[in-house]
Amino acid sequence: MFQAPSVFTRAPLPPATREPEPRREQTPTPTTAAPARPEAPPKAAKRRDPYFDNVKYLAIVLVAVAHAWEPVMDDSRATRALYMIVYTFHMPAFILISGYFSRTFDMSAPKVKRLITGVVVPYVLFETAYSLFKRYVDDSPDTSISLVDPLFLTWFLIALFIWRVTTPIWLKLRHPLPVALAIAMLASVSPDIGDDLDLQRVFQFLPFFVLGLLMKPEHFQLVRRRKVRLLALPLFAGALLFAYWIAPRMQLGWLYRANSAQEMDAPWWSGAVMSLALFGCALALTIGFLAWVPRRNMWFTVLGAGTICGYLLHGFLIKGAVYTGLFDRHTWLSGPVGLVLVSVVAAGAVTLMCSPPVARALKFATEPDMRWAFRKDPAKR
């Protein structure tokens, strides 16, 4: 993350005054020379906070495991309930952290360059790759390459671009979160928004990004208190019981936030109600999740820096298994043993995808060096 330079200027020095004569009882200094000003210590390199790397890694594991459950959970009410709980908070948590680390974004040249190389370019490359993957592996020759209709999980990149570009606006508003919630509610009752740029998700997930912009380090200190961790246990237990009860009755489309209420054949007013209800549930479960994330360095902490690779790559594994009919041929994967196996494989695969060797190998796509594409700073010529 680039840090905004300091905008404070040095105040004018007070007018010089004559040094007072030392009292006789004071011992004069051994030299009249001005004491040497101590050298400023070298600026320490910015260190990554292990807590946030742990959050990102654990969140991306939940994303991959939940995606792996989708093709095999229909015969298991318990798995569907777990899926609903995970889907209620895993992307909100990821988006909130993204907002938190976007607080210093402005339209300065270095940050715009990083936005293009770290978000826009990966979106273009992986949207194209997923389209071609579906066309040839799924034997769907009619699949077109469309940069305005995100395929599968690439929607998050275009959403992050839109959210981050609008960050200066949200930081200037007096009440940004209520405004974001109002936009989400309006989107949920607006079927004419359409599929372009997956704007339904952009608008309906917007409050979590804005909330992240408003977060401060002390808020995370409050979340990580022992009392919050203890309260999180009955919270998740109650959520699991409620999800098990409602699993056969609730449409999963509410959790995806990709459609309006009318598109899900629900009354129009239910969109606004569900937007507020899901925001409250997601926020409570996100707090419970953040409370239990380890604060110290763990064996997986280093993987937090490579979560973009795990996010973008694991879709090929999941969709490849679906396109090739793996789950249709092996129906036992829908049973208890199969569900455990699918979960372990998904978690293990995304862990490998987040590893430093993979991150280095994929740097050309996720963080390319594109100095050739930008004008040089006149000050550096």
TrEMBL record:
<keyword id="KW-0012">Acyltransferase</keyword>
<keyword id="KW-1133">Transmembrane helix</keyword>
<keyword id="KW-0808">Transferase</keyword>
<keyword id="KW-0812">Transmembrane</keyword>
<keyword id="KW-0472">Membrane</keyword>
<feature type="region of interest" description="Disordered">
    <location>
        <begin position="1"/>
        <end position="47"/>
    </location>
</feature>
<feature type="transmembrane region" description="Helical">
    <location>
        <begin position="51"/>
        <end position="69"/>
    </location>
</feature>
<feature type="transmembrane region" description="Helical">
    <location>
        <begin position="145"/>
        <end position="163"/>
    </location>
</feature>
<dbReference type="Pfam" id="PF01757">
    <property type="entry name" value="Acyl_transf_3"/>
</dbReference>
<feature type="transmembrane region" description="Helical">
    <location>
        <begin position="228"/>
        <end position="247"/>
    </location>
</feature>
<feature type="transmembrane region" description="Helical">
    <location>
        <begin position="267"/>
        <end position="292"/>
    </location>
</feature>
<dbReference type="InterPro" id="IPR002656">
    <property type="entry name" value="Acyl_transf_3_dom"/>
</dbReference>
<feature type="transmembrane region" description="Helical">
    <location>
        <begin position="330"/>
        <end position="354"/>
    </location>
</feature>
<feature type="domain" description="Acyltransferase 3">
    <location>
        <begin position="50"/>
        <end position="345"/>
    </location>
</feature>
<feature type="compositionally biased region" description="Low complexity">
    <location>
        <begin position="27"/>
        <end position="37"/>
    </location>
</feature>
<dbReference type="GO" id="GO:0016746">
    <property type="term" value="F:acyltransferase activity"/>
</dbReference>
<feature type="transmembrane region" description="Helical">
    <location>
        <begin position="114"/>
        <end position="133"/>
    </location>
</feature>
<dbReference type="InterPro" id="IPR052734">
    <property type="entry name" value="Nod_factor_acetyltransferase"/>
</dbReference>
<feature type="transmembrane region" description="Helical">
    <location>
        <begin position="299"/>
        <end position="318"/>
    </location>
</feature>
<protein>
    <submittedName>
        <fullName>Acyltransferase family protein</fullName>
    </submittedName>
</protein>
<feature type="transmembrane region" description="Helical">
    <location>
        <begin position="81"/>
        <end position="102"/>
    </location>
</feature>
